[in-house]
Prior knowledge:
By secondary structure, the protein is of the alpha+beta class. It has helices spanning about 15, 25-40, 40-95, 95-110, 130-145, 185-225, 240-290, 295-315, 330-335, 360-380, 440-450; strands at about 5, 115, 125, 150-155, 155-165, 170-175, 325-330, 345-350, 355-360, 390-395, 400-405, 455-460, 465-470. The strands form three sheets. It has a six-stranded mixed sheet. A five-stranded antiparallel sheet has the order 2-6-5-4-3. The chain has a two-stranded antiparallel sheet with strand order 7-9. Strand 12 (about 455-460) and strand 13 (about 465-470) form a beta hairpin. Mean pLDDT is about 75; it is low at about 5-25 and about 430-435.
Amino acid sequence: MRAERRPSGAQSGPVSAVAPLGTAPAPLEARQRRRARFELSLFWRTFIMLALLLVGSSVAWMQTFRAFEYEPRAVLAAQQVASLVNLTRAALVHSDGIARLSLIKELATREGVRIVPREPNDRYTPYRGDAMEERIARELGARLGSGTLVASSVNGESGLWVGFDIDGDAYWLLMDPARLRPVGGETWLIWLATAAALSLLGAAFIARLINQPLKKLSFAASRVRDGDFDASHLDERAVTSEIREVNIGFNRMAAQLAKIEQDRAVMLAGISHDLRTPLARLRLEAEMSVADPDAREHMIADIAQLDAIIDKFLEYARPGQAELRPVSLSEIVEACIYPFKDAADISIDLDIPAGIRVMADEVELARVLSNLIENARRYGKSPETGIARVDIGARVKDDEIHIKVRDHGMGVAPELLDKLTKPFFRGDAARTAATGAGLGLSIVAKTVERMGGRFSLKNSSTGGLAAFIVLHRAA
């Protein structure tokens, strides 16, 4: 075995021939990250839906109110104007000339109603505008007779002008049009803005009320996923009965999972003790009682393989999060390649810049790298030479350290890449003959995940299999 270290700035031919370190995330994970950028949280989805519903309801109610307001308001306004005209006409008809002048002056002073003679050459503008004004004009014509004139201005003076006759004499009655004008657009806008603001506040409150229990449930589920059963307790005294039942059921499930986890730990400890004790006796008996050296060596090898398989099972079943601390990557790699120093069937090239420190569990990371190197040694031998050439490199990218372990073997069929990290799967057809329980890469993926990192596999474009590990960079 030869281990060569390149300068930190140099690029190796095999390493640079493939994609940059850590650029081969799983397709599903990449799609999920892209989708997450465009998805809204449940709170915002609920808030927008309720806001649109409430604002739409307010606008629809306002339009309905205005539509139903036109007819009765127009009829009432026309009735009031017609009554005023009829009363004024009756008062003028039954008064003499002096009293008529006094009455006209009194109406102008107290009621804001002016009565002026109507001349044939008067210029007037018909009282037409929106739908309500047209409706008022038609109603006044129907109540005061066909000869009634309703104008919005006479001789350039604006107002509500109503033309009527008294004993053959034509008059104009002028009044303030404000008494007939409907509620203005500014008033409606203020009302709508107030209703919209209240609707949005109500939507935010309702959305928060709905999503707060779901957020707590999501957090508790993530704690259970990470193995922290004590921090996953939910409130069982919630006011809402449905939320209370969900919380009670979740707490019971978490408690049951905690008990199962505890039972599993006890069971694994028992398996380790109960299986290793007879294996140790068998090995001792084989070494002392079997005379044939070849048979003895084969028996010892089988027992060692069984012992290694037990180690794999226990290692895969190890629960909990790893305790992370800053460690030197180059020191760990040097320790991992040391057992292969005198091996003739493996050649390791290193390309790791000095001073790189990662957040990891030193023992766990060493186990991961040793597992990958051993995997490359077993299955990544070159068909021409029978030697496994392994390249180990690392790069710093933002706050992450991207590590790559690559062999130059036959690689793996693309359809099998996603299955290699599944427990008990062995890619025998793609690579050389395999032994063991098929847990090596599963343990690697699970251990990297326990350290808060990512693990992925990809075939190299120039042959061989490349394993990518992404860990957090130590400050």
